[in-house]
Every structure is written in C-alpha cells, then in structure tokens.
Amino acid sequence: MTSTLSYSRDSPAPQRPGTFIVFEGGDGSGKSTQARLLRDRLLELDRPVTLTREPGGTDIGERIRALVLDHGQGEIDAHTEALLYAASRAAHAHQLIAPKLDAGRIVICDRYIDSSAAYQGAGRGLGEENITNLSRWATEELLPDITVVLSVDVADARRRMADRGAADRLESEPDEFHLKVQESFRSLTSDATSGRIRVDGTGEPHEVAARVWEAVAPVLREEGTR
User: Across all residues in the chain, what is the average pLDDT?
Assistant: First the structure.
C-alpha cells in the first residue's frame, strides 16, 4: 500500500502567507546540497527564507535526531523509531515551521512527512498510510506547498555516501531496505496532482539546481497571491 498523502486536505487548513518547500529522496540523493543551493539563490534575490531539516530544527528535535540516527543508542524498534520521528516533527511544525510561514517567510525543509512514510512505513514495514496519518496528526495538517523528490539510483547514492564518510543508522541499512525506500518515493510522485515533483538528481550540483529551480519557480511566483 502506498501513502495517501497529497496536498489537498479533507478539511480547511490555515492559509499562511509564506511558502513551504520540502526536499525528499533517499540517502545520497543530494537533498541537503540542493536545499542549501535553493536557499542561497533566494537570498541573492532578497527573499525571506529559512532553511531547516528533519529530524531536528528545534532543540528537542536535534536531541531526538541524535537518538534515532547516531550509533550506540541501544536498540530502537520500528514503532519506537516512528514515534520518535513524529515527536520531532510535531515540535518542528509547531515551534518553527508554522511561525515562519505565518511571518511570510519561505521555509525550505530537508525531509518531512514523506520520509517517514518511505523509511518507517515502507522500509520498516509499518505501512505508509499509517505513518502518514500519524505525521498529519502530529503536525495538525501542516503540509508543504511543493515537495521536490530527488531521484538517483541506489548504486549512485551508495557511492555518494561512501565519499562523505561515516554512515548513520539508517544509511547503514542494507540495499534491500534502501530499495524499498526508493520505490516508495517513486510511487509518491506517480500522481501528478499530489504536489510532488520528481527531479533527476544525477549530474553536477549546479545542473540539478537548475532542474530544481524550474520545478519550484512557478510556486514562488504565486507567493503572496494565494
């Protein structure tokens, strides 16, 4: 079963003046690099922008990040892992993302709800819909305006991770796990109305950044008119 998350809501959600952009994809897909490059481009254009990440973004979120990603924290079963991610996301949404959007800023987030659907829902076998619904409850339906899903094959991703050194708990999972995650992200972009755009993550960072800009520019042009 694939995640049911889309960016249409069953009930009205607050209309915020800011724009919420999320980068998703498997480990080694280039999310963090592209999120920073988009932030830098927007700063050059004098746009008010905040870059953040998951898990993390708040004091409690960063502490949870260490629990779920660092080695040596003891056994963390799949359900506990999923709930820790949801707790970090709840703090992130309420303490940082929503206030920044209410202030009219562009918020760029490195990972969000789709990552939990892919990693804990598909990778851990807890069910993408279950995990998506948990995150929607935790964030009170604070959903992105657009999600950029960067796509690279697992072999390329592994090479990139090897180049950058030590792997965290999830990066250290076997290829079978990462293939499930990749397939989940692929399925999420199969619906053209979902608010997600699949972007080829192969090539030099500036080449990928040009594709990302092409994807997000229409949403940014609409900013302030929604």
Answer: 88
**3-state class of 3 per DSSP?**
coil
Class for the domain spanning 19-221 = alpha beta
The yes-or-no verdict on residue 91 having pLDDT over 70 is yes
Q: Which two tokens stand for residue 118?
A: 């892919």
Residue 139: phi and psi, rounded to 5, are -100, 0
How many CB atoms lie under 10 A from the CB of residue 197? 18
* Distance from C-alpha of 121 to C-alpha of 132, rounded to nearest angstrom: 8
pLDDT tens digits, 162-201: 666 667 788 888 889 988 999 999 898 877 677 899 999 9
Calpha distance 62→3 (Å, rounded): 26
Boundaries of every domain in the chain? 19-221
Pairing mode, strands 146-151 and 19-24: parallel
Tokens (6 digits) for 166 = 């030590």
Cβ–Cβ under 8 Å, residues 205 and 37: yes
